[in-house]
Write a structure and sequence with these properties.
5 domains; four-stranded antiparallel beta sheet; alpha+beta; 641 residues; 29% helix; Immunoglobulin-like; single chain
Amino acid sequence: MRCVMIRYSSSTQPISFRNLLLKFGVCIFFVGLFATTGFAQLPDFHIDTNSITFSNRTPVEGEEITISVQVKNIGDATPTMNEDLVVDLYEGDPTTQPLQIVCKDVILELKPGETQSVETRWQPRPGETKIYAVVNPRDAKYIEEADESNNIAYATIVAQTQTFAPVTSEQIQNALTKGVNWIIAQQARHSRTCLQCGTENQLILICVTCQASLEGLAENFEPDAVWNFGEDQTQETALALQSLLATGHTPSHPSVKNGLEFLLAQDWNEFAVYQYAVIIPVLVTVQDEAYRERAQFAINRLIEKQLPVEDDDFADPRDDGGWGYGFTADGAHMNMVIYALYAAKQWGLNIPADTWARAEQWIRRNQTETGGWLYNLVDDGSPWAIGVYGSMTATGLWALRACGVPVDDPQIQKGMAWIKKHWTLTRNPGSNSWLYYYLLSLQRFCDIPPTLDTLAGYNWYDDISQMMVSQQQPDGRWRGSESDFLATCFAVMTLSHALAGPTEPNIGIVPKSLRFSPPSPRVGEAVRLSTTLRNTGTPFDGILNIRFYVDNEEVSKTEVLWTPKLQETVVSADWVPATDGEIELVARIDITDTDKSDNNASQKITVYPQSTSVTDLQMAPEQISENVYKLGNVTLDISKR
């Protein structure tokens, strides 16, 4: 560093102490200025293609491998202990909005000349993937460094595609039988005894008393009326019962009977959102009128718990319409709650329209421009992913359909495009967990009437059933990183097309299907009115009426013959307007069913005067020659009589 010299006058006059302080301060200023304009020592974090390595360079799709990234500090300074050096990982160029890979490792105090690594687990998609690493991204934890040009690199990995053999309906049924038998066999209290202090722990890996490892210890198995793996015996029992009931087991089956008695005996006043949400589909499927009041009580509690909490001055508007732990909404809660509401709707339980409307808006807000869905908008990602991922996208799609949104809705179409882009049956795209939860959500999306035989160009049920039959373990379970019990319940429900079905017919008017022709009707001109009816409930055999109204006055009534196999039909009627101006056209079905929200449809129409409408001006005769005129496609010669 160059020394800054300040030359003083050779005057013999004495220099005051004040002047000395002033000149000393000037000197310090210039030294500091030079030190902060190019002479400060900074770290310089460096990575390249060789910095990124894989525990298996030729994995099979969905196989969990380890990604390692080595970072070297080629600068002159060491970050402080309070500075976390972060490495972000992506499945593609970060500028193209790819899926982000969760990496929780950070590097501390990386000294000049030293190299440290971060590691994370990842499941590859089939084919080639370019894994991008970005060291020291410009976010809240950014560390000032000398050069950022060497902070990004990528390495390519190719995963083999898994193929699954076709399966028969008998093979699927055998898989279901084995899966259900495994679930029934788990009806017990599961625990591990700590060898160090003797504490009995639920199925966790660290003792709650002395923190000793429980990994590898034998599992205690105490038969009981409930399924209890230590997470929440109410939720676990309800999910087991959903699985058994979906495969045709009745309330008289001993496992169902005992589990149901346990659920009914609990203190329902103390339940949280999840507990209400998983119990309601059980009661709806059992179809016992004795439980209807109990089910309505649970629905009322869910309605009360829809966020925000009343009079909460600190509520975040982004949570409005959702459910969650405490006061923050999330997609995992929405998945379970929306299924409970959908099931309750089939049984004719009372759910305010506002509850559906606010839930739909929360779901819509959580979709990003990529087409994928987030866990929520408030927190920094979910515990299992960063940004959008598969199970939340499938949740968003199926929840919108449960709210009555048609498949041709732009947000649903965008979400389906995201599913197609990331299509895989061996991983939950964007996450290393909850594969079978993801597939269950896709099944619900496709099985809501009107059902979808294909999804994103794939025969979804055939593909899923082939994978699941192949991946089932010899003892009947399916393996899941979250838990084998949950994975098996979700797999059984998916294979059995589990969806709380309707208990009676539900014929309604398809949204946006009310039409009229011609598009610019005139007074005295016949207008064809039409709309599409669809049955999303149980089969109906009979005759119903659909009426058309103009400004509250009935102008037409049409009979419709509905047969048990009929799902959808178009109904038409003719009407001749007598006056011009804007009118309201209404179609109404004469039927009493559980869902009255789709029994009416309306649309505004402008009727033009008979001789001065826009249509008349457009159809004015065009003179071709002295006596010949053209009117539309008709040629007239007025010289001929």
